[in-house]
TrEMBL record:
UniProt-recorded Gene Ontology molecular function terms: quinone reductase (NADPH) activity
Catalytic activity, EC: 1.6.5.5
KW S-adenosyl-L-methionine (keyword) present: no
InterPro entries named among the record's database cross-references: ADH-like_C (IPR013149), ADH-like_N (IPR013154), ER (IPR020843), GroES-like_sf (IPR011032), NAD(P)-bd_dom_sf (IPR036291), QOR-like (IPR047618), Quin_OxRdtase/zeta-crystal_CS (IPR002364)
Gene3D superfamilies named in the record: Medium-chain alcohol dehydrogenases, catalytic domain, NAD(P)-binding Rossmann-like Domain
Name assigned to this protein: NADPH2:quinone reductase
Keywords for this protein: NADP, Oxidoreductase
SUPFAM superfamilies in alphabetical order: GroES-like, NAD(P)-binding Rossmann-fold domains
Species the sequence originates in: Mesorhizobium shonense
Amino acid sequence: MSKAIRIHAHGGPEVLTYEDADPGQPGAGQILVRHTAIGLNFIDVYHRSGLYPPPGGFPLIPGSEAAGVVLAVGAGIDWLQPGDRIAYAVNVGAYSEERVIAADRVVKVPDGISDEQAASMMLKGMTAEYLLRRTFPVKAGDTILYHAAAGGVGLILGQWAKHLGATVIGTASSSDKIELAKAHGFDHVINYKEQDFVAGVAAITGGKKCDVVYDSVGNDTFPASLDCLRPLGMFVSFGQSSGPIPPFSMSLLAQKGSLYATRPTIFVYNAKREDLVASAKALFDVVLSGAVEIKINQRYALKDAARAQSDLEGRRTTGTTVLIP
């Protein structure tokens, strides 16, 4: 019997249970996949804790990205066959040995990219892609600020932004994380526990501030992030690892310099099949070119998902982490 991690109620890591789970057989437009590696992300924690309502209710199999091998193909699928290597980023369901999934949500993994790399970079890497290329199209000469620079998205985005010609500023909480971020494209990294990052950004930019702030931290970095932006700059909130941003008046954006603010999600940006394919291709291309390197910093067995999530929440992980079925 195939195994999976299930959640039957919201709570801490202890609610993640390792159980038998029959994936069933693929119907029309679906495929059956055997996972070889599964990505670990903060959105998994949000679904477990209840910060984000779990799609479909309970019991819930969490997990948003994985890579694996096609075992069976349902009717109407002529571009995939058993044995093909695939990867995906969806909402839930990845914490499993096998699963049935809609074929139009997966992409083939090209030669030169391992299953572990693919599993660890689909959600994080395509997030970096839409942030840098579509939400605020970064170009040479731009100055950007990215919070949590040593995290999974940060280590990809830092390299990619540097490749695009930007000046890349980050924040991190320790000397080890600062060095890691600097090794992955960041020109400047501010230790936010020792220095006010607003003052740090002002000093680095000579008072000109940033064109865009990418913020997945939320409560702890708001509204200070707005003070890091030049007039007409853009605040991009795409996560809330420290808790949600409290409600605020739109007039605050006017007071801070006629700023733009947006709250994007990857699932809207890649809802159309053509956008998903284009995003994955851009990611695969930049990795295969060597401009962005994907390293796996932590590995856990799937059955140890509770420990993995606990370490993620406790800031004891850096970069990318995978669960191995």
